[in-house]
């Protein structure tokens, strides 16, 4: 997942900075949802093994389960709110302030995991989560540049929007994880249910945001082979993310995303001549240390002591 996400980031930057006719990002997001849906359908067909079982699975869990579709529409809607709140926050906060505060989504996800899934994290894991938050902030840090353009901002509105975006990010990810792990329903069925609502949400967002220009220039304006490659990487990355959430958790997904940021920045140094800064090096070091600390096995010292006591008693008895 980390390598795919890093490749996606680098390819996305290339298409957004070198294209002569810039494509609509909103339509690309919508097409990504469509491709993820098609890939999930293909993987479900492979998993079921026969057309009869494949058709029965779709009929039972998708076409015949409007309640399940509504359940999986929740993360799609919440992610849409998150993206809009993030844009509103960026419009009303300095870039540096936005960059730091938005990383609170990492500990927020950990908190949602504890509250919604009744899990516990060790002190070392909590330390690694906040260390990751700081590391990602430093990796993405860019010095504030003076500008002559005066933009009217509302910091109170910006902080309110960033708080909502952070909460949405944590809630949506953990909610999807809870739905995935609360039943034996196939992962690909769950993906199909979510991507169906995702297509509706992103299509509506595309026309609300760029409707006039899309009607004038066309839905696929500016698309090249590179753009389609970026969309494909985003689609594969989305499927990998669902697999990571299914078999690990959302906190581990955050660590994978952080590692992808570091790798994509290193790739940008090679491909685009980006200069490595001291803050990036320090941030990358913190990310690596936090990943290592979070992955350390948790030891239950009480059970170890009890085991040692039992063994000593057996020795004494002998």
From TrEMBL:
Keyword Transport: yes
GO MF annotations, alphabetized: pyrimidine nucleotide-sugar transmembrane transporter activity
Source organism superkingdom: Eukaryota
Ranges annotated as spanning the membrane: 22-45, 126-144, 156-176, 188-208, 220-243, 255-272, 278-296
Record's bilayer topology term: Multi-pass membrane protein
Subcellular location, principal: Golgi
Alphabetized UniProt keyword annotations: Membrane, Sugar transport, Transmembrane, Transmembrane helix, Transport
UniProt-annotated location(s): Golgi apparatus membrane
Keyword Transport included in the entry's annotation: yes
GO cellular component: Golgi membrane
InterPro entries, sorted: EmrE-like, Nuc_sug_transpt
Family stated for the protein in its record: Belongs to the nucleotide-sugar transporter family. SLC35A subfamily.
Name this polypeptide is given: CMP-sialic acid transporter isoform X2
């Amino acid at each position: 997942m980390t390598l795919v996400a890093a490749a996606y980031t680098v390819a996305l930057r290339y298409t957004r900075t070198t294209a002569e006719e810039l494509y609509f990002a909103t339509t690309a997001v919508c097409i990504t949802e469509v491709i993820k849906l098609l890939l999930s359908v293909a993987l479900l067909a492979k998993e079921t093994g026969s057309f009869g079982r494949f058709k029965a699975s779709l009929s039972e869990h998708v076409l015949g389960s409007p309640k399940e579709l509504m359940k999986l529409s929740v993360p799609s809607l919440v992610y849409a709110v998150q993206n809009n709140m993030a844009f509103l926050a960026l419009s009303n906060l300095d870039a540096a302030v936005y960059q730091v505060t938005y990383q609170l989504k990492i500990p927020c996800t950990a908190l949602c995991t504890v509250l919604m899934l009744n899990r516990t994290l060790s002190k070392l894991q909590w330390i690694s989560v906040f260390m990751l938050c700081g590391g990602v902030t430093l990796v993405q840090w860019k010095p504030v540049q003076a500008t002559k353009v005066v933009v009217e901002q509302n910091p109170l509105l910006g902080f309110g929007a960033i708080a909502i975006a952070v909460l949405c990010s944590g809630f949506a990810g953990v909610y999807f994880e809870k739905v995935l792990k609360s039943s034996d329903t196939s992962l690909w069925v769950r993906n199909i249910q979510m991507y169906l609502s995702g297509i509706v949400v992103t299509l509506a967002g595309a026309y609300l945001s760029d409707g006039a220009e899309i009607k004038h220039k066309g839905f696929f304006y500016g698309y090249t082979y590179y753009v389609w490659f970026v969309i494909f990487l985003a689609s594969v990355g989305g499927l990998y993310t669902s697999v990571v959430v299914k078999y690990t958790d959302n906190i581990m997904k955050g660590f994978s995303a952080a590692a992808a940021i570091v790798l994509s920045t290193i790739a940008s140094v090679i491909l685009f001549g980006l200069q490595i800064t001291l803050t990036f090096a320090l941030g990358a070091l913190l990310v690596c240390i936090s990943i290592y600390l979070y992955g350390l096995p948790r030891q239950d010292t009480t059970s170890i002591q009890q085991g040692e006591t039992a063994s000593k008693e057996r020795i004494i008895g002998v």
